[in-house]
Amino acid sequence: MKRLWVRLSMAFSGVILSFLVLMTILGFLASGLGGDTLPPAVSARMRQYEILPPELQQQEIQQALAHLFRTLTVMGIAIGAVGLMAGIGMSRAFARPLNRLAEAARTIGTGDLSRRVDIKGTQEMMDVAVAFNQMASELEKATELRRSLMADVAHELRTPLTVLQGNLRAMLDDVYAMDKMEIARLYEQTRHLTRLIEDLRIVALAESRQLPLNLAKVDAVDFLKDVYASFEPIAAEEGINLSVRLPDEALLTYVDTARMKQVLYNLLSNAVRHTPKDGTITLCAILQEDLVAVTVSDTGEGIAAEHIEHVFDRFYRTDRARTRDTGGTGLGLAIVKALIEAQNGSVGVSSKGDNSGTDFTIWLPRCRPVRTTPASVPARSPAISNKILNS
Q1: How far apart are CA 147 and CA 108, in angstroms?
Q2: Which of 118, 203, 291, 340 has the fewest CB atoms within 10 Å of its CB?
Q3: DSSP-assigned states of every residue in 117-152
Q4: Whole-prediction pTM value?
């Protein structure tokens, strides 16, 4: 009794049986089984023809009504049988997609995330099937990312730990003298481990929307002027010209100033790392509809097309030959993306490669109430993105 198709069949059967009972009652009433005479209106209607005597008229009419009743009874039984069969067939057809969906859900529960269901049936069933397949795809993608993350973290942690273990063992075997130079090398490896763990913590908290943020209304123009003043000496020390292009009017947005400085310092440091001496880095901001767009552009080596879609991935390095000492932990741009999305914004990158430079653009909402749900992240249309990146 708990199966859907059984309940639907019983519902169809109840409707059909109710129809048959109603027809039977009407047949009894019409055939005059409840009395010896027809209703007065019917008798008066039949007598006006004066074809048969009244007694014969009454007999003929009752015989005709009895025949009609038998005919209706036979038709009702036939219709009822066909209706019952059709009801069972329809109920099984309704329940079949749900059974397939339940079977697929059990398969995914066992760990086989490649299972999908066919998109068939009514529109509602097809909507459920599409949503189920999307859920399965997202789960499969998340599982792959988690596996890749675990492998990458293990790889990144293994290198400094191996160096520490090897150097300490060499000191115990008197291969290396325990002087300040060797201790400084070990200390640098511990600092790298600390930075790596802290970067991973920030990415995890930001992506799960659990990173504490102090969002406040900030004028992006004044904020970028402060960032420029702080970072300009660093760029000058590397022989790189840092310029700023800002509008005259205020660009108000809601951000956490400390986290935004971390984002911009990561982008500017990345630009300095990939821009040759005498190159130029430009920090600019414009207003596009309800979005404040902040762009960090450089005249450096650029990013090849095959790397564009991966630059915000964890531990991804476009230059595989770059070491951890010169290339950082590989989490800088992943932190940028996580922090910006945690502040209800989005970030994109554009580059033509071949030493044509790179543009990183941040889109932030312009003075709108802040929400903590993912639905509050402002949508960025491709037209707006291309216009900003190409400006």
Answers
A1: 17
A2: 118
A3: ----SSHHHHHHHHHHHHHHHHHHHHHHHHHHHHHH
A4: 0.58
